[in-house]
Every structure is written in structure tokens, then in C-alpha cells.
User: What shape does this take?
Amino acid sequence: MFVEFISGSANVELKGQAPVSVSGQSFPYVDGPKNEIRGKYILTNTRGYDGMPQRNTKIFIDESTKYEIRKSIDTGNIINTKTVEETDEEIIGRLRKRFEILDSMTKAAKKGKIRAMIVSGPPGVGKSHGVENVLRKGDILTTLADAQPKYTFVKGAASAIGLYMKLFKYRTKDSILVFDDCDSVFSDEVSLNIMKAALDSKPVRTIHWNTDSRLLRQEDVPDHFNFEGSVIFITNLKFDHVKSKKLRDHLEALESRCHFVDLTIDTDHEKMLRIEQLVQDGMLKDYGLSEQAQVDVTDYIRANTHKLRELSVRTVIKAAELADAFGDSWRDFADTSLLKRG
Assistant: This one.
């Protein structure tokens, strides 16, 4: 789908420039309209458009803005004017397709066909679980041979030298390094420079550590090496929300080296539909729950969406554990442990 800004105020904010009008232009539609402190915006995809940010971009609008959502740029088939609504079935279909694409791209990264990917989405929607499942199934022969898997997940904080050493350990073409909510990599300039070298588009990617280090000598890690592995970043971070211009420039350079998979889950309603999809696909079968009990768990989560401490796949699993442990009285335990006070 495309959004065409027909008339009125519609502009995009570019670094170091006054807001630029996009009235009369069309872009792939992502989501909108949304409210924020400074006004309203529609989320579009401006990758491939000259002079525009190469990522999802906010087009700011006001009450004077007239726009239309179309199935394509060159058709008169208008879906809606001023707003667009997806049915639940369409949302589920969109989310399912996004996660299928994520699975396929993870397989390609494991084979060394894709050198880097950034997976962006809110917490608790199954980003890490999906990637880990694909890697575990793809590494089954290694597991059977009782050998070390050729992939690893890095979670929490990582120093620049720790990052360098991890890249060295998983440097071969069939190895993959997954940074799971390890956002310290994105906030440290040295780490970002190391990652840019590791993910360069040149045929040979050489990473250097130009500072003397006793730790590297102790671990027998050289001060430079060629990196042929692949990297996946799983993050909740919105790159366009980073305020530091210096870091934003580094992030844009990193993003240009990576495939960017936005799972397009931005609202509680979309999270809930994702949860229902996973339950329908058998996520709760391992907990020994009957079909009716699985429906009851899902209904409980939906009924308490705005009361939950966290709306996520993890919360659904906690509810399933309680249903398995406490039978018909499980909701009393769920009210105490899963809901916010008051």
C-alpha cells in the first residue's frame, strides 16, 4: 500500500535542514496516523527515495493535510481517505508473513548468504525465540556430534574488547553471532566502529584492535583478523529516536550494512493478535493444557490487556503455568502475580 500526500501540510524532518514538504508525493505506507507531543505523523518507508532517510520515516501532518491510502501508486483504487483500517485477519496475515520472512532470512544468515540483519520489534513478541529455533534446528548435526554450536547469543552489556573477542571466536563463514537486546553495542562508538568493519561490504572484512591489550594476549587473540561470519541484532531500540547526532550517524552507517526487518508490531492490539496466532499454532501444547484451557488463558490475557504488568508472550506462558499448576483456581493466582496493583 502507498500513501499519497495530496495537499496541505505534510513534511519530513531531515538532519541539518528545515522541514521539507512532501505534498504531492507518494511513499510505501507503514502505519498511521499516530499522535505524539509535537503533533501527528504517518509512518512511511522512504528507502530508495533520493534525498530521503533510508529507513521508516515519520511524515508529520496536521488538520490541513489531505492524503489517500492506495493499493498502488498508479491506481485510482482508493482504500480510504484520511485513515485506513486493517481487519484482524489482515493484521495476522501481515505479522505471520513478517515472521516467516524472519525465519527465512535467519536461515540465509546461517548459510553465510546474508552477512547482517537488524530485527526490530517490541519486547515479548517472539523475536529471539524464532531466531533461536531456526539456528538450533540448523545446527542439529553439530549437536548430535556433541560439538560446540557455531552460533551464540550475546545478551546484556558487552564491552568493545569483549565484542572484538566474540567476533574472533565466531569469525568463520558458517558461524553466526546474535546480539539479543545487547544495546550497549549501539551506544558505544568503539563498538560501533568494530561492527562497521565486521559488516563492511568489501570482499575481505578485516577487523583491527589498535590498542595494546594483555587480555588479548592471554586469550591468544590477534590484533587483527578477517571476519567471514554473520551477525543478527535483535533489538527494541528505535534507531530514529536516538538523540545523539554522533551516535545517530554511526547507527545509520551500521543500518546501511544490514538488512532491516521491522516486525511492524506497534500497538497492544497487534501484540494480542500475535499472541493469539502463536497459541493457535501450538505454543501452549507443551504445558499439557486442554484446548478449552488454552482458550481460557488467551481470553484472560485479552480481558486484562491494560491491567497486565507486561503484555507479552512471556506473560501468556506464565498464565499457562498457573493454569497447569492450579486448575480451576488459576485465575486467582494470575490476578495476584500478573496484574498491576489497583
In short: The chain has three domains: 2-81, 89-262, 268-338. Residues 89-262 form a domain with the Rossmann fold fold (CATH 3.40.50).
